[in-house]
Write a structure and sequence with these properties.
Layout (H helix, E strand, L loop, with lengths): L3 H16 L4 H16 L3 H44 L28 H8 L12 E4 L17 E4 L1 H8 L4 H7 L4 H29 L16
Antiparallel strand pairs: 1-2
Helix pairs in contact: 1-2, 1-3, 2-3, 4-7
């Protein structure tokens, strides 16, 4: 890990490069080359670079969504024209074509975000020293690393600020937890299930209360008549 001065200088260089990225493909190529440099930064500088990259990606996502909608409309129009010109003749059996996925395409792991769950984790004591308050620490080894994207919020455990920094600086976080004899992944799953269960119960109570609400009052309205 670089010293603070060198880390800050490299951070500014990476942030400037991110600002000049012109497309999602360019961003992906840049991320593959810059990942090693980002990992050499201090935890604070690395977080700033990740935030800048994620913000830049959001710009491309909005543009891609708009372009994708236009493309679907154009494709649907083209398909209708092809069917009208080269439609199946009477007596012919239609054989749907099988569409195979392109080689090298890997399904992205879903990364869930839940602010209520992070708040619940922060209210728990630190797993190392039982100190409060705690930070919601994301277990980086639970999902494939991606520049600008944290792991899913379901892989979050409470750590005090001191042990939070220690976990980030450990290098091999999985070994760091094993050394302490703590199954952090199991604890994260239990916390996630507890939050989800509470959310489902609250939703069920709200639905039941709404179903029991009277449609309208049957009592006659009382009109005040002024004294003569």
């Amino acid at each position: 890990m670089l010293r603070e001065e060198l880390s800050a200088s490299l951070r500014e260089t990476l942030v400037a490069q991110i600002a000049h990225l012109g497309s999602r493909d360019a961003a992906v190529c840049w991320a593959e080359k810059a990942l090693a440099a980002k990992n050499s930064l201090t935890a604070i500088d690395a977080k700033l670079v990740e935030d800048a990259f994620e913000e830049r990606l959001s710009v491309f996502s909005s543009a891609d969504a708009e372009q994708g909608t236009t493309g679907k409309i154009n494709n649907a129009s083209t398909q209708r024209n092809e069917l009208s010109e080269d439609g199946p003749k009477k007596g012919d059996r239609a054989h749907p074509k099988r569409i195979s996925s392109a080689p090298g395409m890997v399904e992205r792991q879903k990364r869930q975000r839940n602010k209520a769950h992070l708040l619940h984790v922060a209210q728990q004591p630190c797993l190392i020293c039982a100190r409060k308050p705690a930070d919601p620490h994301h277990l980086r080894f639970m999902q494939a690393r991606a520049l600008g994207l944290k792991v899913s919020d379901e892989f979050t455990v409470p750590l005090c600020r001191t042990h939070h920094r220690e976990a980030h600086h450990s290098g091999d976080e999985r070994a760091w937890w094993q050394k302490g004899g703590i199954d952090a992944a199991k604890i994260a799953r239990n916390l996630w299930e507890k939050t989800r269960g509470a959310g489902k119960r609250a939703q069920a109570r709200g639905s039941a209360a709404k179903a029991n609400e009277p449609i309208g009052s049957t009592e006659p309205a009382v009109v005040a008549i002024p004294a003569p």
